[in-house]
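Why should sequence recovery work at all? Because a backbone constrains its sequence more than one might expect. Tight turns favour small or flexible residues, buried strands favour hydrophobic ones, and helices have their own preferences. The token representation captures these environments compactly. In the example below, the structure is given first.
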């Protein structure tokens, strides 16, 4: 089947699936390449909305699309409804950029963030036409690779992956692609030879080259050292200087709302804190910070390039970013002018200063979130969360004083050595925060305590711990809920069975490959989604495969014997070297059990309230303690502490610069920021921030514009469109008027919603702008920044007091293809042949029009609604020349009908046919009754098909 056929085949199924825009690509900034030699599929085993939010894939997408001849395309997991449709029609899983089947790529790379997406990985391989197991693949199949945090303990998927990439992908991934292409092109190597060569690249783990045997110490399979000494053992992680790889500012702009629908930028990788439960803290060590100037540039470019009105800074512990305050201060000023909101993820309670909170509050969008992780000081010391209750209360106090009234706090239950007092401590802390808000700030405060179920993760100091029994966890959850009711705080707990399975798989061995495949064959999909998770099926899979879950949850022995010189027991993931020594983790484990803390490394330390406390450059104390020796725990990474000190000094001078700058700007408002070099918007020659605000202008002008929604864009919902168009205005630097109030909204009024899947040839919007807009310039600017399929065709200025769109439009005209598969099928049922004769069409239409009423039942979310289709149909007629059915319906504030319902009433379509028909329908005109035109730019009666030039000669 050719590419064009896949698009047509998808058109037949897309109207019948949830959120079809997930599968059609064509987003702004999506990369389309020609003359491609090497195709790389970047796969994310979850839905589009989650995959599109992942920052790592954005970096790789940019990086791998850079070289000539390489094309990186995106593929996400099909939701179960889509998987079923693809299988029914025999359509393979396709990439979003070129609709290429997964098995036609050279390399298929998965980003694995969560163990409960493994069944989706199998779905993607299977629907993509790739054999599930590495052993079943040949050189004609793509090379299946995987990276991401879960691959540091990848034995449960070892049978399915050809090459596991350990470490930062910026260097390893391109190196792997180059080497693989070279080896494959040489043409005289076997697949085994190719895999052996790839295993020699630093950071590559090729599971097929390693065997596994049962450990006498815990009974699980551990990976054996290969006899071939050219195969690495252990496989060492690769670490890169992230500043060599700028974060992209031109990633594809999602078509539908995603989990993080904003310009997000990774400001640092790694974390200075040594939380003993945290895998990310180990596998991303040491901390590496991006240059603050580059961060500002990337964010402002990202806003200009994507048209976003929201942005966020992310890292494992954003408050630890040494230049956070200067960065937030500069960004805050720029973003406020651009009406762009701003959030900061993963704030540590001790890192929230008053001035930081004030800056975030200026342009905030989100609630205030901190992660104390545990409810008592003893428990926080066990896990090495270096914050105190005072830190939490001080941060919340700052938040309340800056206007927040909702505080969310993250905790864990089931931690090692936990007692009932520690669990009660969570609710107690929530109560104290609520009291603080009510008593000190006189606020109606909402406090939410979210408690997850601790999973002992590989490569952490707590990797040896038992995962607490599920019944005992449920009891703790009940206790927390009860205390939450008493203290009037919201308590949220995680689904216990999901976390239990996550624990089993994350500490799993190679034996779990067969269990995962079995669970998938039993129908497990999207296991991270509560509505899909089926614990019973998973337990059945374990039972069928004869694998017990108990051994994966129990405590592991640390040493092979009681002797102090005894070696550490090998665990199923110890053939992967994170560069952090196993001995370091063992030492931290023992310190943890004794509730002894280890302050963050690479920072000067001062004893405060009897506790060694790390002092960051943002602290007023910094200058006094800066000369003290920096801490290093000899974790294995061998950081250069001279460089660390230089870095801290630079960060400190930036803090000082900002303080000075703040003083200077207070006196001289016009001074230019030393940090920010604003990028000019392409085309307009100026940024939206350069323009005066609407308040500085005269009255806003009102405009009406006609646009077309064609091709794949027809699968955007009305809601998606209300997100896409304001972004396009921002990209085009066409300034919009904004409503007043706390959350100013762009002043755009949309015409009547167009159903998902229908083409709209002459859709309407009204908008207000402070600018005097000329049609040719408006069309040029807008059309240069719209994704394929969206296009503005005309603009007119409305007179003051002109009636709104809602009052102007009350009719819609549609054209339906009479050779649509659904109508032909109905005709076969009625007269046993096709095509229908024109007289019969007329007869059926006349029969429908002659009735007073035709009631159809609509079902939506378990509700049935009866609608009179005839009452809302003004006209229906056949155009014999073009073989079209032309329908005119009423649009009224009380409701209306869908054109597919009129066709269903005339031709007695089944509900399935009615569902898939919309992709053959076009809305050609919106107008006012009595054939009065909506405006001079709207098409006249008998409107155009695709020729925009016919719209009264305006376009
Ligand atoms: S080498 Fe020392 S300073 Fe570097 S991450 Fe490890 S413990 Fe911290």
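From this structural description, the recovered sequence reads:
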């Amino acid at each position: 089947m050719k590419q064009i056929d896949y698009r047509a085949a998808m058109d037949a199924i897309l109207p019948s699936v949830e959120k079809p825009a997930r599968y059609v690509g064509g987003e702004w900034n999506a990369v389309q390449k020609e003359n491609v030699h090497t195709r790389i599929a970047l796969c994310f085993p979850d839905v589009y909305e989650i995959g599109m939010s992942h920052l790592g894939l954005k970096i790789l997408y940019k990086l791998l699309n850079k070289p000539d001849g390489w094309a990186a395309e995106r593929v996400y997991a099909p939701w179960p409804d889509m998987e079923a449709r693809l299988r029914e029609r025999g359509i393979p899983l396709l990439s979003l950029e070129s609709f290429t089947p997964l098995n036609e790529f050279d390399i298929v790379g998965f980003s694995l963030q969560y163990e409960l997406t493994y069944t989706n990985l199998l779905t993607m391989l299977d629907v993509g036409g790739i054999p599930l197991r590495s052993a079943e693949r040949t050189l004609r199949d793509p090379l299946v690779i995987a990276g991401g945090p879960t691959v540091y303990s990848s034995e449960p998927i070892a049978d399915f992956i050809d090459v596991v990439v350990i470490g930062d992908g910026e260097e390893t991934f391109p190196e792997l692609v180059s080497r693989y292409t070279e080896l494959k092109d040489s043409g005289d190597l076997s697949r085994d030879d190719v895999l052996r060569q790839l295993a020699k690249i630093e950071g590559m783990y090729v599971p097929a080259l390693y065997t596994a045997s049962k450990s006498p110490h815990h009974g699980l399979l551990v990976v054996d050292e290969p006899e071939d000494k050219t195969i690495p053992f252990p496989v060492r992680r690769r670490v890169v200087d992230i500043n060599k790889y700028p974060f992209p500012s031109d990633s594809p702009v999602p078509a539908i709302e995603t989990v993080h629908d904003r310009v997000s930028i990774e400001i640092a990788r790694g974390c200075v804190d040594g939380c003993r439960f945290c895998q990310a803290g180990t596998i991303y060590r040491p901390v590496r910070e991006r240059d603050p100037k580059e961060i500002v540039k990337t964010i402002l470019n990202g806003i200009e390039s994507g048209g976003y009105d929201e942005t966020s800074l992310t890292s494992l512990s954003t408050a630890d970013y040494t230049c956070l305050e200067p960065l937030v201060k500069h960004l805050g000023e720029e973003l406020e002018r651009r009406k762009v909101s701003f959030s900061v993820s993963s704030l540590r309670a001790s890192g929230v200063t008053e001035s930081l909170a004030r800056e975030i509050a200026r342009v905030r969008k989100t609630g205030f979130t901190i992660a104390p992780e545990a409810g008592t000081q003893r428990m926080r010391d066990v896990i090495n969360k270096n914050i105190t209750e005072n830190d939490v209360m001080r941060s919340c106090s700052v938040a309340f004083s800056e206007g927040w009234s909702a505080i969310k706090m993250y905790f864990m239950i089931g931690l090692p050595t936990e007692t009932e007092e520690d669990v009660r401590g969570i609710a107690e802390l929530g109560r104290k925060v609520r009291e603080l808000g009510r008593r000190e700030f006189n606020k109606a405060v909402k406090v939410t305590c979210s408690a997850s179920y601790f999973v002992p993760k590989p490569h952490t100091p707590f990797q040896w711990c038992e995962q607490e029994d599920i019944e005992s966890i449920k009891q703790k959850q009940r206790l927390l809920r009860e205390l939450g009711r008493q203290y009037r705080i919201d308590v949220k707990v995680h689904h216990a069975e999901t976390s239990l399975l996550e624990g089993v798989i994350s500490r799993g061995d190679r034996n779990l490959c067969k269990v995962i495949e079995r669970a998938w064959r039993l129908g497990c999909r999207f296991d991270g989604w509560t509505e899909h998770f089926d614990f019973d099926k998973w337990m059945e899979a374990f039972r069928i495969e004869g694998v017990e879950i108990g051994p994966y949850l129990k405590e592991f022995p640390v040493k092979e014997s009681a002797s102090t010189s005894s070696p550490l027991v090998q665990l199923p993931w110890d053939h992967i070297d994170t560069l952090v020594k196993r001995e370091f983790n063992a030492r931290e484990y023992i310190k943890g059990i004794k509730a002894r803390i280890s302050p963050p490394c690479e920072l000067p330390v001062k004893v405060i309230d009897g506790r060694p406390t790390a002092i960051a450059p943002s602290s007023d104390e910094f200058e006094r303690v800066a000369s003290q020796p920096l801490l290093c725990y000899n974790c294995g990474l061998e950081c250069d502490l001279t460089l660390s000190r230089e870095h801290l000094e630079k960060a400190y001078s930036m803090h000082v610069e900002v303080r000075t700058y703040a003083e200077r700007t207070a006196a001289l408002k016009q001074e230019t920021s030393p940090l920010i070099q604003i990028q000019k918007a392409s085309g307009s020659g100026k940024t939206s921030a350069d323009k005066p605000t609407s308040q500085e202008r005269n009255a806003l002008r009102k405009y009406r514009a006609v646009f077309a929604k064609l091709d794949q864009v027809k699968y955007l919902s009305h809601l998606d469109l209300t997100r896409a168009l304001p972004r396009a205005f921002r990209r085009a630097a066409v300034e919009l008027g904004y409503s007043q109030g706390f959350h100013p909204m762009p002043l755009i009024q949309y015409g009547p919603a167009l159903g998902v899947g229908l083409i709209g040839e002459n859709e309407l919007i009204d908008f207000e702008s402070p600018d005097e807009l000329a049609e040719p310039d408006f069309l040029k600017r807008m059309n240069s920044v719209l994704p394929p399929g969206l296009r503005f065709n005309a603009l007119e200025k409305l007179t003051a007091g002109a009636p709104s769109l809602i009052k102007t439009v009350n009719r819609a005209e549609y054209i339906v293809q009479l050779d649509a598969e659904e109508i032909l099928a109905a005709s076969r049922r009625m007269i046993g042949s096709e095509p229908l004769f024109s007289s019969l069409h007329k007869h059926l239409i006349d029969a429908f029009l002659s009735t007073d009423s035709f009631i159809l039942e609509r079902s939506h979310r378990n509700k049935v609604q009866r609608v009179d289709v005839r009452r809302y149909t003004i006209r229906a007629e056949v155009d014999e020349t073009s073989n079209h059915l032309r329908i005119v319906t009423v649009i009224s504030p009380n409701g209306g009908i869908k054109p597919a319902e009129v066709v269903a009433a005339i031709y007695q379509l089944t509900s399935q046919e009615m569902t898939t028909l919309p992709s053959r329908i076009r809305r050609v005109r919106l107008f006012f009754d009595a054939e009065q035109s909506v405006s001079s730019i709207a098409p006249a009666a008998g409107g155009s098909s695709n020729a925009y030039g016919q719209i009264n000669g305006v376009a």
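A few observations help interpret the result. The two ends are 38 Å apart (CA to CA).
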